[in-house]
Amino acid sequence: MSWYLTLPLVIPFITAIAAFLLRNGAYGRWVSVAGSTAALGAAIALMVVVLDQGVLADQMGQWAAPFGITLVADLLSAVMVLITAITGLAVAIYAIGDVAARHERHGYHALFQILLAGVTGAFLTGDLFNLYVWFEVMLIASFGLLILNGDREQIEGGVKYVALNLISTILFLTGIGLLYGMTGTLNFADLAVKVDLIEDKGMLTVVAMMFMVAFGVKAAVFPLFFWLPAAYHTPSFSVSAVFAGLLTKVGVYALIRMFTLVFDHDVGYTHTVLLWVACLTMVTGVLGAAAQSDFRKILSFHIISQIGYMILGLALMTPLAIVGAVFYLVHHIIVKANLFLVAGISRQLTGGTDVYKIGGLYKSSPLLAVLFLIPAFSLAGFPPLSGFWAKYIIVKATLDIEMWFVAFIALAVGLMTIYSMTKIWAEAFWKDHPDGRDPALSGLANRAPLLIPVAALALLTMVIGLMPEPFVIFAERAANQLLDPTTYITVVLGEPS
Amino acid sequence: MEQLLSILIGVLVAASVYLMMGRNLLRFLFGLILLSNAANLTIFVAGRLTPGAPPLVPDGLDAPVGPVANALPQALVLTAIVIGFGLFAFALILAVRAYYSLGTLDTDDMRVAEPKDQA
User: Fold this and answer.
1) In this complex, is the C-beta atom of B32 within 8 Å of any C-beta atom belonging to chain A?
2) Distance in angstroms between the alpha carbons of the first and the last residue of chain A
3) Which structural domain range is residue A211 located in?
4) Residues sharing a CB contact under 8 Å with residue A275, sequence separation 6 or more, in sequence order
5) Hey, is the C-beta of A432 within 8 angstroms of any chain B C-beta?
């Protein structure tokens, strides 16, 4: 059994149990931080091994593939696990200054760690049904985190979130059943081989569309995103940061995995649908954000519009576009989680989240203003930040295949993103606080745990922006593995006899 | 048998869609449980219904003798039932809680987090 693959999964579960047992004292938060640090170490170790070997696979319980459950890490999985661990650690530290003791007693840290385990599991599994199980682990933990405070807004957001996600889950399950009926297997690698033998390609496309809708709900693409802006602004800020960073991206990851590895039989149809979905997602997301005035609601709609870029990368299906999708995925998790964390600090300082009712942050806390500007500009795609390269690659990919209109939409949405970011800047940071409040950082009792993760994530987006080459080369390698899954299949199934 | 079960699945889906179209949260949840049962039956049927023997391996052999039933879909359905049950229990409690704190189960009236007059 390979510890490289199992440790990133085992550590969060052990941490969750320990944090649950220690939930009544002040130790739970430290257990959570320690566990997240250990998980980060395990993720780095996995990354090093995968960089060296290409693809790493292991069969659980020593049942040979395709019969047992396989854990696989190719470069995409490894980088997603790593970025999950980084976000997890950042939010675990932030939670020290953000989460109320009452929520800790209700099991915040345990649920948080289980959520991270679910996300990591979804990235590492090589088995379709196992993916469903990890989705459920993730889902039930996120339900708990979402309504932890139990106020009216949270309950109401929770109802919408739960209802739409459960429908998506059932669709996913039906899709699994039908695909199993057609191929007799659930292993990704084996599916990739077996779907080629199916004669009725039309039926396969139908099943593919079921998966597209199921993962589309998770990824919050147009027109399936309504649960996201209904719920993401209601929980505590550390919870919404980890939701914003990771949860929808699991849906995007699942889409990329399934529609490069398994459902590549009718690219002309499925990926054209994805292309339209991507463009509409970008546009509706950014227009929705323009109409909002709540800090987190603006950011929530921007998640949707950014998801569009990633789906666009997948939809174009050229090598460069997939590179862009992978790069965008990683960049977006860092930046989006960071913006929600900044929103949390701003809420603590100014006492509100409606940008028209707060202000004065630039004058009183210039440090926070800088820490907001970095991820905000990165999100909008300013050089020299990571978002610039992410957008650049995607737009370049559209221009290469002469899709002028799509390129125009991608660029226009980038401009609109700046509009929303400057709205937050002008209202929350630039103008004076309407109540004459002085939102200085020095007034914050526990500012170190709040600021350190924000600064670290901001540094990360700058490092990617200033030295993009190793990251682009990495994304190229990951994209090559996705477009030519021969290695993936051989490593999982063993050498063909 | 397959045809019969397929029709049953169709009826279940139709009933659940009808229930879920309603504005009442409780009806929606009943629709959801019907839909998840339809999905479970789909997996069961997709795994082929065979009148085979139980999939038991006799002593000293590596594989069962003769045609046996496919055990995998049953294992999948079992897992899905357990997970679905857990999620449904959560959703029911959430509905009760929503009724107490929001005073309504009509989804159209749930506008606390997304007020109508905003923006």
Assistant:
1) yes
2) 23
3) 2-491
4) A312, A315, A316, A406
5) no
Interface of B with A in 44-103 (CB under 8 A): 44-48, 72-73, 76, 79-80, 83-84, 86-87, 90-91, 94-95, 97-98, 101-102
H or E element in which residue A70 lies:
strand A70-73
Q: What is the pTM of this model?
A: 0.93
A497 belongs to a structural domain: no
Distance between CA A269 and CA A265 in Å, rounded? 9
What is the number of structural domains in chain A?
A: 1
Cα–Cα distance, A48 to A52 (Å, whole number)? 6
> Any CB–CB contact under 8 A between A203 and chain B?
no
pLDDT, one tens digit for every residue, chain A (497 residues): 578 888 999 999 999 999 889 888 788 888 999 999 999 999 999 999 988 888 888 888 777 777 888 899 999 999 999 999 999 999 999 988 888 888 888 889 999 999 999 999 999 998 999 999 999 999 999 999 998 888 888 888 888 899 889 999 999 999 999 999 888 888 888 888 888 888 888 889 999 999 999 999 999 998 888 888 888 888 888 999 999 989 999 999 999 999 998 888 888 888 899 999 999 999 999 998 888 888 888 889 999 999 999 999 999 888 899 999 999 999 999 999 999 999 988 888 888 888 888 888 888 888 888 888 999 989 888 888 888 899 999 999 999 888 899 999 999 998 889 888 888 888 888 888 777 777 777 777 778 888 899 999 999 999 998 988 899 999 998 998 888 888 888 888 876 54
Q: Residue A291 domain-assigned?
A: yes
Q: Can you say whether residue A354 is alpha, beta or left, with left for phi > 0 and alpha for psi between -120 and 50 degrees?
A: beta
Long-range CB pairs of A47-55, under 8 A, 24+ apart, other chains included: A47/A78, A47/A79, A47/A81, A47/A82, A49/A4, A50/A74, A50/A75, A50/A77, A50/A78, A51/A75, A51/A78, A54/A481, A54/A487, A54/A491, A55/A481, A55/A487, A55/A488, A55/A491, A55/A492
Nearest Cβ partner of A140 from B90, B95, B110?
B90
Instruction: Return the residue in A180, A186, A213, A300 with the most chain B beta carbons within 10 A, the one to mutate for interface testing.
Output: A180
Helices A404-424 and A267-290, axial angle in degrees (round to 10): 30
The DSSP string of A167-233 is HHHHHHHHHHHHHHHHHS--BHHHHHHHGGG-S-HHHHHHHHHHHHHHHHHHHT-TTS-THHHHHTT
| CA dihedral (B8, B14, B18, B19) positive or negative | positive
Q: How far is the CA of A77 from the CAs of A56, A191, A479, in angstroms?
A: 10, 18, 12
Q: In Å, how far is A79's CA from the nearest CA of chain B?
A: 29
Q: How far apart are the first and last CA of chain B?
A: 56
CA B24 to chain centre: 19
B31 touches chain A (CB under 8 A): no
Question: What residues in A contact B98, CB-CB < 8 Å?
Answer: 155-156, 158-159
Closest CA to B7 of B41, B51, B43: B41
Q: Is residue A40, in this structure, part of any structural domain at all?
A: yes
ipTM: 0.91
Q: How many CB pairs under 8 A join A and B?
A: 108
**Which chain A residue lies closest to B17 (C-alpha atoms)?**
A167
Residue A496: inside a domain: no
